[in-house]
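Board notes (copied after class):
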Amino acid sequence: EERDMKLFQVEDNVWVSQFEEERDRPALGYIQGKKYSVAIDARHSIDHIHEFYEALEKEGLPLPSLTILTHWHWDHTFAMHGVKGLTIANQKTDEYLREFIYQMSPESDKIFLHMDPTIEKEYEDGKPLVVVPADIVFEKQMRIDAGDEEILLSTCTSPHTDDSTLVYLPKEKILFFGDARSGIFPTWKADPKLLEEYIDTMKESKAELFVGGHWPVYRREDFLKELEESLEEAKALQSE
């Protein structure tokens, strides 16, 4: 069923779409540079990306010429085949996607599609599972000049996956972190050591606004406070 996707303008040239729990659709970003428009993450399925593009068109915004992936998980990448322009991923993210593609078969696709109720819901109308690798692959760091908008990509340690990319806009002091703050699917338990390292990275960042896949936009103080609370929880769970 179609629902209108809402876009929220966070800064002059920066928008964020809403997230949805039912189909595990992450909230992700859009940056309008003078040379390129850039999207953060490629969405869960072809329907999801079409809704995103429709929302952009309604706002009179150009479709992205570049789409940056924050990590390889399906809800952020499995609509890559429907992306306009080129996709960018770190080397590890691209390796995970290629590994998934290599292992695809009618049998394994079926297992994947029934792995979680949110995936079942996203693909319930029988749309095919199509997974493709990235067009552009970088190691550790990359800088994009989108025209009046500098976009900095860097890999980081995270308790969620070992292929996290952070996307930072120095002009607006906005950091897109994907799902990097949470634990591992499907238990969401976080390794305290990895979480601690991730928190240090966040503290070193000059960002004032933090945008993730499945949370509202955070102000710095609230974000760091919530991360410290998560760390206490993770330590308590580990010592049980």
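Comment from the instructor: The chain is about 30% helix and 25% strand. The mean pLDDT is 95.
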